[in-house]
């Protein structure tokens, strides 16, 4: 039987009162009431407006949590870097190489961005940069010049897969990252680019949606367990250029995007529970190519392209939580 300590990395605490601000998945024993309790997401989530980015844009990378996220790079191959603290965005140290159509993963103090395009047309790059909370530094190049891939993980263990390389050829190749270098791993089951991405390590990730040019949209979902890809249940709406909750493991949310090669854009949000996808509350503003961050129950989408203009809007996705008394029955 799986133990709580194996899942959460700690024992269940005994306390004389319920914690004032529990985290999703936290459990404790209340000695005053002699009850085992836990905190979990309950009910249907909703979107709420957050404060705008300092600069509008799209096709950059996003990663982190709802209250501590980075939105990096984007259209016009910018080197911009903005950090969100749950309330407002602040400009931080710029990338060494401006780029668009790339991916990132990690946290606001330990992140990675990989690949992309840094010149007009199809000038893909292999450059990888590492973020330490205050500055970017170039680290080990990815073996293939790739843009628009899906990537997930942490600064020292991640995966990048799919994308367009070297021109507009969409690929299924995948690589793992160990904090210093990249190694080729098993190919995706479906070649594609511009998919949703989420994962908590280099051995626990998920990619959903994507496209093959000029306008074939996919609803495929594939999970990675550290050794192979497995196809699981499909999205309800086939689309690409989506935002996603980057720090989720077996569960994730996918939002916005385009079901037909760039336009129109949609507000559709879907949530994956590890088995199937469910359509939930829509975004306020339809857009594609926004930067996502967070988890399946606490995420954000910043920037994007509405079909007519770049956006600087931020929306926050939250599934309400509740304390429940647990039993063995």
Give an overview of the whole structure:
With 329 residues, this protein is mainly β. It folds into two domains: 4-41, no CATH class; 46-318, Kelch-type beta propeller (Neuraminidase, 6 Propeller). 2% of the residues lie in helices and 41% in strands. The chain contains one helix and 30 strands. The protein has one helix at residues 4-8; strands spanning 13-15, 27-30, 35-41, 46-50, 61-65, 68-72, 81-84, 89-91, 103-106, 111-114, 128-131, 136-139, 150-154, 157-161, 174-177, 182-185, 196-201, 204-208, 211-212, 216-217, 221-224, 229-232, 243-244, 252-255, 269-272, 277-280, 291-294, 298-305, 310-318, 321-326. It has a four-stranded mixed beta sheet with strand order 1-2-3-30, with no helix packed on it. A four-stranded antiparallel beta sheet has the order 4-29-28-27, with no helix packed on it. Strand 27 (291-294) and strand 28 form a beta hairpin. The model is unreliable at 4-9 (pLDDT under 50).
What brief labels describe this structure?
329 residues; mainly beta; Neuraminidase; 4-stranded mixed β-sheet; 4-stranded antiparallel β-sheet; 41% strand; globular
């Amino acid at each position: 039987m799986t133990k709580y300590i194996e899942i959460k990395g700690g024992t269940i605490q005994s306390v004389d009162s319920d914690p004032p601000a529990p985290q999703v998945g936290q459990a404790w024993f209340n000695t005053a009431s002699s009850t085992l309790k836990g905190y979990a997401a309950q009910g249907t989530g909703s979107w709420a407006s957050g404060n705008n980015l300092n600069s509008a844009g799209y096709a950059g990378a996003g990663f982190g949590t709802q209250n501590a996220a980075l939105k990096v790079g984007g259209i016009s191959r910018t080197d911009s870097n903005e950090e969100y603290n749950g309330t407002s965005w602040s400009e931080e140290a710029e990338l060494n190489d401006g780029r668009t159509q790339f991916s990132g993963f990690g946290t606001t103090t330990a992140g990675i961005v990989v690949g992309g395009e840094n010149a007009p047309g199809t000038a893909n790059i292999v450059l990888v940069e590492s973020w330490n909370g205050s500055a970017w530094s170039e680290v080990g190049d990815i073996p293939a010049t790739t843009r628009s891939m899906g990537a997930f993980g942490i600064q020292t263990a991640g995966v990048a897969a799919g994308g367009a390389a070297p021109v507009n050829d969409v690929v299924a190749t995948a690589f793992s990252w160990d904090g210093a270098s990249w190694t080729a791993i098993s190919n995706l089951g479906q070649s594609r680019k511009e998919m949703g991405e989420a994962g908590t390590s280099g051995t626990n990730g998920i990619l959903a949606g994507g496209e093959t040019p000029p306008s074939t949209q996919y609803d495929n979902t594939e999970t990675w367990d550290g050794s192979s890809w497995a196809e699981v249940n499909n999205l309800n709406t086939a689309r690409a250029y989506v935002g996603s909750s980057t720090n989720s493991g077996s569960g994730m949310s996918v939002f916005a995007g385009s079901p037909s090669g760039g336009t129109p854009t949609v507000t559709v949000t879907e949530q994956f529970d590890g088995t199937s996808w469910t359509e939930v509350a829509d975004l306020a503003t339809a857009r594609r190519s926004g930067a996502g961050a967070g988890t399946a129950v606490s995420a954000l989408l910043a920037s994007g392209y509405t079909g007519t203009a770049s956006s600087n809007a931020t929306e926050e996705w939250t599934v309400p939580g509740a304390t429940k008394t647990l039993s063995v029955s």
